[in-house]
Amino acid sequence: MSKGIKMLSAVDALGGRYSVDSLQTQYDNNQAIPTLFCDSPNCGSAVRFVKQHTENRMDRVEPIHVPAYIGLSRGSKHILGCRYDAPGRLKLILATASDRNFMHTLDDGKRELRLLILHQGLKGKGASVNAATPPPPSDTGNSSQRPTGLRATGQQLDSYLRTTTNLLALRAACDDDELLATQLKLRFGKHTLGWKDFFFGSGRYDEVWEKLAPGAQDDMPLALVGTVKSHRSPPAGATYTTTYLNCES
After folding, report:
1. DSSP strand pairing (191-193 vs 199-200)
2. φ and ψ of 98, to 5 deg
3. What is the separation of C-alpha 117 from the centre of its chain, rounded to a whole number of angstroms?
4. What global pTM score does this model have?
5. Among 23, 75, 76, 78, CA closest to 49
6. Most buried of 47, 83, 166, 239 (most Cβ within 10 A)?
7. Quick check: 71 and 78 in contact, CB under 8 A?
8. Residue pLDDT, tens place only, 78-100
9. Contact by Cβ (8 Å): 2, 174
């Protein structure tokens, strides 16, 4: 399981601080990379420098660029409370997602994130602050009996968005999908999605384009990691509510 968050700095045995950029420069100049440790207070776990490189993917013609980062060494893990402790961060996110209609506990202890409820709320279907919301179902019942017509209040929608955003930010900071994929299931109506089919980093934009192309018939929700170059919000009096984000390619 991916246990840590990609780090941008670390310390050596004497407390000297190294950034990812300085380590990459040392590597490029054929200089020795020191033994590194986590720079979070009281942690000191063994970490390693991973140089910038390219990776070939089976579903891609061109290799993707992977920026340099610092990550856990094999067999090492961050202490509880370390700012780079990904499992601890995930546990906190799940603990604060108290609405079981949105984040449902399954029989095997995993959680199910119900994207349809978020989707309906964002589309304005029942996202009124006065909308009545049914009580949460019992987690001891049959997990196949799921409510499908729930209506999110404005306050609940904010909570759903915060939970989803926190999960996506955590995934973006980790090496891979494994941490969230082993703890969460993504459900959209009757469909179950894998994290790799929902979360797309900047190196996978071509896959997203294929899903969005005319005639693709792919209506599943998806999340993108990107750097926003500019944005355009609806002007006053507009009949649409969509905000457009123009991201770096």
Report:
1. unpaired
2. -85, -15
3. 18
4. 0.74
5. 23
6. 47
7. no
8. 999 899 999 999 999 988 887 88
9. yes
